[in-house]
Design brief:
14% strand; alpha/beta; 10 helices; flat; 271 residues
Length: 271
Amino acid sequence: MEPFLQRRQTCTPQQAAALTESVLQMLIYDMRPLSMVDSAGFQQMIAQFNPDYILPSRTHFTHLMEQKYSTMFLKVKEILKEVSSSLTLMCDVWTSRATEAYLGVSCHFITKDWQMKTLNLSTLPLEERHTAANIMLWMEEMIEKFDILPSKIKAIVHDNGSNMVAAARLLEEKHGWFSVRCAGHTLQLIVNSALKEPSINKATGAARNLVEHFRRSELANSKLKKKQQQMNTAEHKLIQDVNTRWNSTYYMMERLWSSDGQSQRPSLTLR
């Protein structure tokens, strides 16, 4: 009993609070699930760092995260209140891997020392239809939540979706916000139109089928790795393109070219 009674505690209340804050920041910055603090491996790792530190429960971290959100929300409101320049909003309706729809809204402005700042205002789950009228209503509710005057907003940047274009038109008519279509999305539509040219579409279609074959077949993929080793080429995996990102089609073709033992980068010039 004597060694136990004489053992010094190596984790003071101040150190415990600092460790808890560190774990909370890790969950936030790395976007980890709160259930992580309940996992045996994570608890063993924390115990190895400091055996005297008692890791709080998931419920406690949930409470801390809600407090962190409230603090940050008030801080963002205060920052926006002090901005003297006009604001620009950028919004997008997107779908998660769990097929859940969200409205993402960010705010952009220039500070007094001419630095551009960006703040994420909302990642709002959408349960109703994504009509132009609903999108306009959600945008108005969002700026009201942050005490932003409609007159302080100069423009709204959005993609070329028909509902987003219609919503931006409604907001322009009601509040005078300039409607600015996303240059990246517009470029995407232009390139997609070019890729539909019959000869190009035939080539990209053949490449796409080839990549899908190797991605579906474990045997074919193993043979590809063996052939790469025999030819002393880089053992890169083939890339599957995505319709919403035109450069992914280029990367798919480039990877097929390099996997064929070619060292020269393919030209973007279409012949």
